Recover the amino acids of this structure.
């Protein structure tokens, strides 16, 4: 059976939007999701593909979180194949040497006329970014905390949901889709 991966945006950060992973696994299992596994408390969930489109699965998980915790948490869902393609298509292979400084910024929609499509990437050097299919690959060799580029993906300039995972997490999510 194939897998889906749900990526929750902005949970368990600095004491806000608290969601216990054990309870989240229970809720999703109660709602018919099978073999639910979470990875770290930042909102990474792997489960058997329920046979619905990822966008519909995302809405279902958002509703479950809203009903259980009273929180409006954006959720992006990708299939196992989409995660594999994201890894295979990595346009910044040198960045994988520093996986904690290399991000996959998952996008809920295909970007159109966003700042990162129209801006000059050189203005962010030494940081680099490349726009992919509903993902932006971001490498911040001097660290994420000092990056003007990484901070831009955290603000509301996009007009749609974006949630970032470092490369270590992306690879772990791939691994989890193979284990369970």
């Amino acid at each position: 059976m194939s897998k889906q991966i749900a990526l929750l945006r902005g949970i368990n950060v600095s004491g806000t939007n608290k969601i216990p992973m054990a309870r989240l696994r229970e809720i999703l299992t109660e709602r018919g999701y099978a073999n639910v596994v979470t990875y770290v408390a930042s909102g990474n969930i792997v489960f058997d593909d329920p046979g619905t489109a990822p966008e519909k699965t995302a809405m279902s998980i958002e509703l479950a979180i809203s009903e259980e915790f009273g929180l409006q948490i954006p959720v992006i869902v990708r299939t196992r194949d989409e995660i594999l393609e994201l890894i295979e298509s990595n346009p910044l292979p040198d960045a994988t040497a520093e996986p904690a400084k290399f991000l996959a910024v998952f996008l809920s929609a295909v970007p159109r006329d966003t700042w990162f499509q129209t801006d000059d990437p050189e203005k962010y050097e030494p940081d680099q970014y490349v726009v992919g299919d509903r993902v932006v690959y971001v490498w911040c060799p001097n660290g994420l905390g000092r990056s003007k580029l990484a901070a831009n993906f955290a603000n509301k300039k996009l007009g749609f949901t974006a949630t970032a995972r470092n490369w270590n997490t992306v690879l772990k999510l791939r691994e989890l889709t193979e284990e369970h």
User: Anything to note?
Assistant: The helical segments are 21-30, 54-69, 80-88, 115-118, 148-152, 167-179. The mean pLDDT is 90.
